[in-house]
Amino acid sequence: MSGDVVRVVLADDQRLVRAGFRSILDGEPDIEVVGEAADGAEALELVRHSRPGVVLMDVRMPELDGLEATRRIVADPRLAGVRVVILTTFDLDEYVYGALRAGASGFLVKDTEPMELIHAVRVVARGDALIAPSVTRRLISEIAGRVAKPAPSPRLNALTEREREVLGLVAAGLSNDEIAARLVLSPATAKTHVSRIMTKLDARDRAQLVVLAYEAGLVRPGWLG
């Protein structure tokens, strides 16, 4: 296998789900499923051993649930290059927000189309967050009542006014191209702003930016109309 191949671990307590995902992913020349786990503890050990690029992680598993397994993966500096995608039954189930706070790079609905699954693995492997803009907006609305009063984060003090503006748009679910159009910037400039924000805030990806900006009160449901 070449260095460009995305190594994937599947973690789900349903064997048929794992088999279905494996059959789809193993058919791609640039993706290799390197292991399967039936519970969170097994997934954690497997990830530590195989160091995959992407983990497809179910939430509800015995021994150790997917959220805690995700937290432990994200907290381990030896696994800094591993990206976790949470598998859900519904695209806004009660665990999605917790998964993003735990450090997941996004989420997938289990009955997703095969091409969407393949695209998702590639997107997350290159460091992008797997949260479609439309879903991000719905997610923000869904979690609106979970933080009673947003608390300003001292970490945001490191950002320029323009960067705070860009962060708010990222958190509202806009893509780099949409941010560029709204702020009359080139797409390359918008991308640079996002990269600098991630560096300053020590964020793994855009998913973490969404959570941080929401909790700091930079974005709120419906603010873009």
TrEMBL record:
PROSITE patterns: HTH_LUXR_2 (PS50043), RESPONSE_REGULATORY (PS50110)
Keywords assigned: DNA-binding, Phosphoprotein, Transcription, Transcription regulation
Taxonomic lineage from the root: Bacteria, Bacillati, Actinomycetota, Actinomycetes, Jiangellales
Domain named Response regulatory: residues: 7-125
Modified residues (4-aspartylphosphate): 58
Family annotation (Pfam families): GerE, Response_reg
Coiled coil location: none
The protein, known as: Response regulator transcription factor
CDD domains: LuxR_C_like, REC_NarL-like
InterPro entries linked: CheY-like_superfamily, NreC/VraR/RcsB-like_REC, Sig_transdc_resp-reg_C-effctor, Sig_transdc_resp-reg_receiver, Tscrpt_reg_LuxR_C, WalR-like
GO BP term, example: regulation of DNA-templated transcription
Residue span, HTH luxR-type domain: 152-217
GO MF, any single term: DNA binding
